[in-house]
Amino acid sequence: MRIVVTAKFVPDATATRRFDTRDNTTDRETEGILNELDEYAVEEALRLTHHEHDQVIVLTVGPEDATIALRKALHMGADIGVHVTDAALAGSDAVSTSHVLAAAITHISACFGPIDVVLSGMASTDGGMRVIPAMLAECLDLPMITFADELTITNGVARIHRATPDAHEIVEADLPAIISVSDRINEPRYPTYRQIIAANSKHVYTWELGDIGIDPTTVGHHGARTYVRSATPATSTHRRHTIVPEAQGGQALAELLRAHGTRPS
């Protein structure tokens, strides 16, 4: 079985997030990591591949530093990394990104062999649009299943279980298929030191748009169907007072209220 996992390089949620003043998009020069929700897709791919000739190929589209996301997936156990990077990609929206991913997946199939499954996380932690799997399925003309809480593959058929507000659903699709997985499907592993060292010998292929047959004028700012008109950082709220331990909480709260001119009832 050959599985491709789409992995997004996103800003670290613990770092200060900045916006590029030229186009109001997220500044990709800030410290980044593998999208945490994509780790569930990597883990599920590793669980599904048991045989010697099975392959897990991790694919990312992004700037030079996006290899950080690939390396994390390789540390977890993925076999090959593919990085599509090109200056023309700056400013790409979800539509153009999905076309690039689709072209890269087609090229992966030509280079490494037929692909059985494409897995993705259920969303990205920076944009959270949740549309890439659907767009990718449309580009590749493949069936799609979303938000899998449980996934099994038997005799060329993928079966997933997922919970919705109204029901518990069981959905099947013939392979090859695009499947997004939820954060309830597994618990991503922590790479061991030995796995991290072993990953250093794994290969990361770097492709430009021309390598996968994409016209640079169809992506980036030129090809984007959407653009960000404005972006304003959210106002953060900080805890001003911490009351511990619990046994003294009542008295401390009463004193705090008095200090602010409020009479405790």
Automatic annotation (TrEMBL):
Domain Electron transfer flavoprotein alpha/beta-subunit N-terminal: 23-216
Record keyword Transport present: yes
Bilayer-spanning residue ranges: none
Domain of life from the UniProt record: Bacteria
GO MF annotations in UniProt: electron transfer activity
Record-linked InterPro entries: ETF_a/b_N, ETF_b, ETF_beta_N, Rossmann-like_a/b/a_fold
Pfam family, one: ETF
Cofactor section: FAD
Keywords: Electron transport, Transport
GO CC terms, sorted: cytosol
Nucleotide-binding in keyword set: no
Quaternary structure note: Heterodimer of an alpha and a beta subunit.
Family stated for the protein in its record: Belongs to the ETF beta-subunit/FixA family.
Role this protein plays: The electron transfer flavoprotein serves as a specific electron acceptor for other dehydrogenases. It transfers the electrons to the main respiratory chain via ETF-ubiquinone oxidoreductase (ETF dehydrogenase).
PANTHER family: ELECTRON TRANSFER FLAVOPROTEIN BETA-SUBUNIT, ELECTRON TRANSFER FLAVOPROTEIN SUBUNIT BETA
The protein, known as: Electron transfer flavoprotein subunit beta
Species assigned in the record: Dermatophilus congolensis
